[in-house]
Task: structure prediction
Amino acid sequence: MIWNEKAECMTHEEKEKLQLRRLQKTVKVAYENVPFYRQKLDDAGVKPEDIKTLKDIEKLPFTTKDDLRATYPFGLFAVPYDDIVEIHASSGTTGKPTVSGYTKKDLDIWGEIIARGLGMAGAEKNWIIQNAYGYGLFTGGFGIHHGAYRFGAMTVPMSAGNTQRQLTNMQDFQSDILTCTPSYAMYLGESLHKAGIPLENINLKAGIFGAEMWTEEMRDKIEETLGLKALNIYGLTEIMGPGVAQECLEQDGIHISDDHFYPEIIDPETGEVLGDDEKGELVLTTLTREGMPVIRFRTKDLTSLMSGDCACGRTTKRMTRITGRSDDMLKIKGVMVFPSQIEKALLTVEGVTPNYQIIVSRPELTDVLEVKVEATKELFSDEVKEMEKVEKKIFDAIRSETGIRAEVIICEPESLPRSEGKAVRVIDERNFE
Amino acid sequence: MSTKQISVFLENKEGRIRDAIKILGEENINIHALSIADTTKYGILRLIVDDNFKAVQSFEKNNFIVRENDVVIVTVPDEPNGLNSTLEVLNDGKINIEYIYAFSNVKIDEAIVVIRLENIEKAIELFKENGIKVLEQEDIDKL
Result:
């Protein structure tokens, strides 16, 4: 079902008029109520009244994660504390956490965009939503909760973890939708099979998975083990939380609620705005947020905006799956390389595990890319000739994916550093000073 | 009949050969022969031992990558031209040798040679036709 036909299916002209009106208001409010934005716009020599067309957004300066840290914790709030009713915060894995403040109206809008997502997943009001996103400062749990409440579905507020209970409730309640991170969905699927529970015993029809990067291969695996349609949801604490964008059952691009969030794609190097179907960094501007308007936030997420409309009938702008982050981009011999590309190349070679390390150095005047891969039984042979063939296979895979000649080093199992959560995959030894 | 050799993957790091050998010592496994192929990046330790099964298990338990593969082990007269006449047989049969190493043992008067090659069955056939003694697994176990 389409939750909000008026908003999700309006013509492009109507949409652009609405976006411009809301953008003008957002810039004006931010300029008048947030000293940080006033300063930023003054420094850039832009006034709110300079925004006459949507294209004029390009005159506005970007907001970065560093800006948010500089104003930590409440420096970007545009309303008095009286009006802020809830806050959430990012985990702060890359430094200070960022805080997001919400008014009652912001929570309504958040609920609205999640409700649209439930509609995109085919939900009905009598459906049961098993919400296994963490409840707390993390936006996942409460975001889905606000949305399911607005939608009128029955929410099971599980939070993350407690796997046995998740499986029990899945069977006892006959939950229709599962919401959690894709890696937890994989784990739940494996646990279901380990426990010998047949798929007939559960009733999951769709899953709304996000908060981390995942691949089509993972989607296939989750769909197979849980017997549902796995949908990609996107969002970020700085802008709102989950629901900024989500896939519909067509699974053909992620619909951005672009009446509330204005998307742009830029070249991460130059900041230049790119056209449809061109890959770059996603930049988002909140169009209706009261508590904390955010202008041209650089998400660091790499994607592209798709041209044309989806077969589902919604006219909201779609984006492709996030494939990497601009901040882990490496420039090697002048070529842009992402760790995710190297990972993809490695996994095409039989016997290679995702335990790898990328080391970039500049011993002389040219860059050297070393890729260390842990040996497995499949990769090992008693003959040097065969080992060299394996190295060549890995070399060729990396070369065809990135265009770069890598020095491939096979090392002993478990010799590369492991860390909880985010592995140190990249070491850049070059000194650019 | 071919016999089994075990190979272990080693990083070029000090102490790794000893780490591997130590495991065999702890498990009371005897090494009959050993050879190492070394490259700039890693080494391949090749071993003929008296208990392959136990050796493989112990290595795996200690996180080493290990494989078993077939080799041909022959005895060669301990005199000039001994090895040459053996190799000639392979040469005439157009069989390519991947690698070769030799050892001796007090229980046998002749030199013992381990040969890794592509076409094991054909090589064994040729050796037997030419009166070269091919050692079976049980011969190795008796050493």
Remarks:
- Chain B is about 35% helix and 40% strand.
- The beta strands of chain B are 3-11, 31-38, 42-49, 66-76, 97-105, 108-117.
- The mean pLDDT of chain B is 92.
